[in-house]
Amino acid sequence: MAQLLYRLGKFSAKRAFAVIAIWVLLIGAAGAAALLSGGKLGTTMTLDGIPSQDLATSLQETFPEAARAAGQVVFHKADGVEFSAAEISGISNVLDRVKTLITVDDVADPFITQATLDSQRADLAAGLVAISDGKAEINKGQASLDAGQDQLDAAKSDLEAQAETLQQTLDAMVANNAPGTEQVLAGLAQIQAGLDQIALQQTELTNGQSKLDEGKTELASNEVQLVAGEKLLGTANNFRTVSVDGQTAFATIYFDQPTGQLDEVAAAEVVDLIEAQTPAGIQVEYSQSLVFSLDGLLGIGEIVGLAIAALVLAIMLRTFIGAGLPVIAAITGVAISAAITFALSSVIEMTSTTPLLGIMLGLAVGIDYSLFILNRHRRQLKAGVELQESIGLANGTSGNAVVFAGITVVIALLALNLTGVGFLGLMGSAGALAIVVAVSVALTLVPAVLGLAKEKVLTQKERLVREATGLSSTPEQVYALEEANASHKPVFANKRPWVVIIGVVTVLMIVAVPALSMRLALPDGGAEASDSTAFKSYTLISEAFGPGSNGSLVAIVDVPENLDEIAELQLQADVSERLFALDNVSAVLPGGVSTSGLDLMFVLVPEFGPTSAETEQLVFDIRELEKVFPAELNANIEVTGIAAVNIDISQKLADVLPLYLGTVVILSFLLLILVFRSLIVPLVATGGFLLTVGATLGAVVAVYQFGWLSEVLGVTQAGPILSFLPILLIGILFGLAMDYQLFVVSGMREAFVHGKSAKDSIDSGIHLGRPVVIAAAIIMVSVFGGFAFSHITMIKPMGFGLAIGVLIDAFLVRLLLVPALMSVIGKAAWYLPKWLDRLLPDVDVEGAKLERLRSQA
Predict the structure, then answer these.
(1) Are residues 453 and 356 in the same domain?
(2) pTM of the model
């Protein structure tokens, strides 16, 4: 590998214009592909394979209207006066115009919605009064019928008694042939006429009773519906779209695109129209989904970070060309990798955050990798090596280390695909692409520019010294000259190893303590910058309607067979009451019934925000109902929403973390054995990394969850940590930690290979590598730290975590703890069984074999 890179470096230097032209063409081709591909980035991360996401996906079939992309628009009167009739009319007119946009499917006008809710409550109250009046009328009618029946029964009994008496009299007269039977018969006829009249009256009473019974049945049915409606309105009583004080209202815009695929252009069109036509004096704010954008990715913080990196390079290298080359190389690599990533978004579904990791890493490692090669080249020039030879040697030695460092980072990033979380794997792949391009730029473009720059990478004074010293003919002479000029003072970690070990381990373990209380979630509007419209929207809704209105939960209840209208209504009422009875529920609204009639939707508004611990517990409580609903209601229940997704993704990542870590650690461990030809050094590297990641996560929790130093770092609202941040930090920091391990320990290995004792090689390696490692770490901290002030919510904690992680790993672990441990272990640190030594290929990462070959040439 070293020989190949040596030849590649010399070729690039000799054919500098051709190499530079190729890179310019690559930039143009990648840019053209990005522009012409029609790539599009989504706004929402989908997490296939988790219950909440699977349920959300199924809504596209069962409840297509609920699966539409949507955003909220908040209207507020900041003057403390409620909306006037003219203002309400003006807002409604604007929303009517929004509804005419081609990408908008529907608009929920807050004033119409609130009026409908109020009307339903009024209608319910009137209906209940009508039911009460109806009951009274029915009772009165029943009493009248009962009284009439009693009178008829009495009259009938009296007439029947008279008829019986007359009949007995008639029978006696006939038996005795007594005269006057005609009068008796006339009396019986009158009685029969009376009984016939009573029969007619009885028929009328029976018909009246039938009608009354029908009224009772109808009244009972209406009462069942009204009681169910009363329950439903009762559970929805706290839901409003216009605040009680009449000063805040929120509209919901529904698009014709699925959830998670809202086009930024469509959202911007809505925002622009509302901004232009909303009546004066009304504050308008928009939810996250309507205003998310990557515009201004390189903001003030990011630019300051790059400026600090350039300043560090200028101080270290003291030449314009030397300071500018790593920055140009990094920008070149990022431009190509970002363009390729965007072009691929036309065939691969990506989120807006997919390219960001590649941009961050591309800038940081692009500068560092170029710096390592440039620094080696400058050292060799100052030691008297011929220009072309120096470029080749720098590429074959430091470039070799860059290749293996890049491979380590790429392994960690590509392994993110093992998580099974699609967008996370894509972020890792985009980051890996950026690393591959950065390494390629460092190994070809940098040597080409160095070939053109000649000795101008040295200061005037350094060039004069080089001229006076003359050229060194062999690598041994170069090494001897560097050794003569290097400091031989023992480093503190080598003199007091146990003090360093105990001190560093203690400090890092203390810093790691907050990580024990870490909570994970996806960010909501409350995590946005305080001056952003998304944060203002979140705050206004929280104050006017409660924090839970910023992130409702959706419960789906499915039944085995279709229900009639009354049974369906009663089930809705029963389920709503059961859900409303749970802790931390502000309101429950029926969301409708699927076309199949087998699925019922319920929208729950929690009392607390979507990322709160209380709302997460509410999700667990709803899922507990899954155990009892089949037996009690002959139905099943599932839940989705931000809180449900937070729980599910955290569980999914926790499940795959061992596989991910195991894969990364094992592959990197084998790679480090290959590089250092030692079993102990990789163990030391891995142990140091565990301390780094623990302290890093502790610092992230302290700032973003506990709120420590939140004002300094621009953290608007403390809350849970980004769900996928820990696994992302673990992967990236592992790769970067192994980079620094490589660059620090390879110097020790080089000294050990050249015959120094294990203890002396530690001092030599630290003195040789410390300046460039410190500079590289400061550059990475500056670049990552700049992203900690990004306006993009997901990038801020990522930038901070990477910055603090590099700071801890480079300065405390690699420059203090590792040399201290190596000092305690001694020569055994370089032990490798002979049988394993014979099996392993010699990758010559220090370039020792290359130097021997060049000495013999």
Answers:
(1) yes
(2) 0.79
